[in-house]
Amino acid sequence: MTRLTDMPPAQAKRLAELECPEFTTRPWVAGPALAQRRVAIVSSAGLVVRGEMPFRGRDPEYHVIPGTTRPDELLISHISINFDRTGFQEDWNVVFPLDRLNELAADGVIGSVAQTHYSFMGATDPVQMEPYARELAGRLKEDAVDAVILSPV
Amino acid sequence: MSALGHYLEEEGIATVAISLIRPQTENTKAPRALWVPFELGRPFGPPGDPAFQKRVVLAALRLVVRASGPVIIEDFADDDPRARPDPAWHPPALPGGAPDAAPEAIAARLEAEIALLAEPHRRFVEQHGRSAVALSGLPIGDCGRYVAGWLCGLAPPSPREGFSAPLLLRFAVDDVKAYFLEAAAAGPAHPSSRQLGDWLWNDSAAGAAIHRLRAKYMTAEDERLKLIAGNFMVPGTRQRSAT
Q: How far is the alpha carbon of A76 from chain B, nearest alpha carbon, in Å?
């Protein structure tokens, strides 16, 4: 229903050509094998834990999602309505694959799963998010995370 | 998303991004990305299919340990099987109503349909153990009444501290949509998002009410209300030029 190719042409073009920062560096961090990695999810779906104030407008901050959060506690508060939400309504792993990560850790495919995960609101200008993203890197390191899976909507 | 990857990687954390819009990812040159051919909103594919989701997660994580970068964009080959319509799905039976009815009639129909869908919605929650109805913080009956009040031109004040009236209207509309879509998805069938959306926007009182709200307030004097009505109620694929 909401693939880029199904959208009105003007809207699809706007999304495809959305202005992105131009980076002059090409960072690249190597590390151990997957079985030794500690993995966190960083989403841009505007995820909030039930009871929290939803993201408003284009808030640049991130919200914290403890690894102990239950599926019935996680909500999407992204400002955009131009993506499917019915998949997430049925199964949070469609957007936030915590159950899959926990299974991969239990099977020894990855080392472990982070204690805490995070969400931004993806419609925000990335330049506004930058200081929060850099601060978040410190929190990830404190949790010994060495692999992040970035999940959009 | 790709920009976040850039910032985190610069700070020393290895990242892999799921990409739903390949041109954006190509422009940003994320360190590592897995493009998936799924609809927006489903970065890990089909709901209720752990094996498929795990393949997506693993395909992404394997890029983290690949030594051939920087800048890897790989494509995930398989389509989301749940994107196909399910002919076994039947939408909830609703009494229906004239699309050109007066706002008061659509408002009454909305509140009646919310009551009618209580049982299928309860079954959805029991079946999946979750519900996304909660952004407004209001019980669904109060959400319906709040939306109905705006539909009838009453501009009801926000009952929640910290939420302006237009903002609460946005979240109440989100909750009404989620409630109807969840109720419609209850049961053993696996409707596609398009099937569910067709029913919501064309056949339900929620669709009629939200289309009408957009038309009514997208030219409002209140800038916040105008912005919300014009851009954050009806998806671009469902907008009508006149209602």
A: 8
Q: What is the pTM of this model?
A: 0.93
- DSSP structure class, residue B91: P
Q: Which of residues 153-192 of B touch A (CB under 8 A)?
A: 162, 167, 171, 174, 177-178, 181-182, 185, 192
Interface of A with B in 48-107 (CB under 8 A): 50, 53-54, 56, 71-72, 74-77, 79-95, 97, 99-101, 103-104
Instruction: Tell me whether residue A85 is exposed, middle or buried, using C-beta atoms within 10 angstroms of its C-beta: 0 to 12, 13 to 18, 19 or more.
Output: buried
Q: Which of residues 85-104 of B touch A (CB under 8 A)?
A: none
Cβ distance B169 to B159 under 8 Å?
no
Sequence length of chain B is 243
- pLDDT, tens only, A78-126: 999 999 999 999 999 999 999 999 999 999 999 999 999 999 998 888 8
**Interface check B240 vs A, CB under 8 A:** no
Query: 3-class DSSP state for residue B238?
Result: helix
* Separation CA A59–CA B151 (nearest Å): 28
Write down the residue that tokens 């009040």 correspond to.
Answer: B149
Angle of the B165-185 helix axis to the B223-231 helix axis, nearest 10: 20
d(CA A48, CA B183): 22
Nearest alpha-carbon partner for B96 in B208, B238, B242, B214? B208
pLDDT of the residue at A17: 67
